[in-house]
Design brief:
Elements: E1 2-3, H1 13-26, E2 32-36, H2 46-54, H3 57-66, H4 72-84, E3 86-90, H5 95-100
Parallel strand pairs: 1-2, 2-3
Helix pairs in contact: 1-4, 2-4, 3-4
Length: 105
């Protein structure tokens, strides 16, 4: 279990990604990370939202390798984590939005 540390570090998933990155270094392949982050502002950044909700994990990673864009870089970091372990997000974000980001609400 990992926490982003409260506001402003968990104001949205874009910001909470930093805590997820640290947890990814400690979890075993195939494990589960429980991210506790309120995220009252939802995803938080338009490019990040597009990458997380519209592209499969491998495509997110490939896109950032060929064309680095801010927002997409954080989506790629989450995609790499999701390829290693499951992520359960405990937050105020609508469960369908969480699922569209390939995480478990």
């Amino acid at each position: 279990m990992v926490s982003a540390g409260g506001r402003p570090k968990d104001v949205n998933i874009y910001q909470a990604q930093k805590a997820l990155e640290n947890a990814a270094r400690a979890v075993r392949r195939g494990g589960i990370i429980v991210l506790v982050a309120e995220c009252p502002e939802g995803l938080g950044e338009p490019t990040f939202e597009k990458y997380m909700t519209e592209y499969p994990l491998d495509e997110i990673i490939d896109r950032i390798k060929t064309n680095f864009v801010l927002g997409g870089h954080k989506a790629a970091a989450i995609a790499r984590t999701l390829k290693k372990a499951g992520v359960h997000l405990v937050s105020a974000v609508d469960p369908e939005v969480v699922r569209s980001c390939k995480m478990v609400p």
